[in-house]
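Let's sit down with a protein and look at its sequence and fold side by side. Go ahead whenever you are ready, and we will take it from there.
>
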Amino acid sequence: MQELLTYFDTIPTPVRTLLLVSGIVFFLILESVVPLFRFDYKKGKHATVNITFTLITLVVNLIGAGLIVAAVHYNETHGTGILRMLELPVWLYIVVGLVLLDLIGAWLIHWLEHKVRWMWRFHIIHHSDIYIDVTSGLRHHPGENILRLLFTSLAVFILGPSFGLVMLYQTISAFFAHLTHANIKMPLVVDYALSFIFVTPHFHKVHHHYVLPYTDTNYGNIFSFWDHLFGTAVYEKDLDSLVYGIDTHFKTEEHSSLKNLLLIPFQPYRHPVGRK
């Protein structure tokens, strides 16, 4: 297990990029073999918008990586951080670290983005996609990327994980972003059983239903038990009843134009059904 941390501690950026691209390509192929829904859309045009946001995400994360490195360095220098205080066996250190990084760096900020209006303005871009597929996973406004980066850095500062553990977490996190958004059909019995621990494709699709209350459920990224613990978990077995998108931005020119998507946070606010 220590070898795993050592590997990710020194993993080259090109290798991480290759893993990210390989994940997208793998699920793109899988979507054509076992699709959950057969969308009537121009997949290339749809992917172009989303992959542009993915590239923006990579750039923001690359530039902001210094914050994470600084947090790791501070904890190493001062011996601070919850994980350092616990002195756990390596395998348990990895498990606890991943679980808590997911709580603060993913679940918490995602929950806040749905509860705090100005944060929601940025998160709308992710929810406005009416064709959820693997390219939707990293469809985030640059402003939201910054928010998520800040919360990941906060999680690192509080927990004190090694740089290798942080890189392992981010790699797994990216994989789950691809997996849970991919337009793939998983056997319902398998998906349902796994959904009590992990965020599964069907579990997350409920979150992308176009109206409340489903929109404000299933915030998890890797682990779903945070949603079960905090009472925000919903499982809908009849996925045919789901409609992707967000009720405030259903016009094609609003959810498919890169320019408009970048401007949405600064446009007049629109109250969704149920209001926020």
In short: The chain has one domain: 2-266. The radius of gyration is 18 Å.
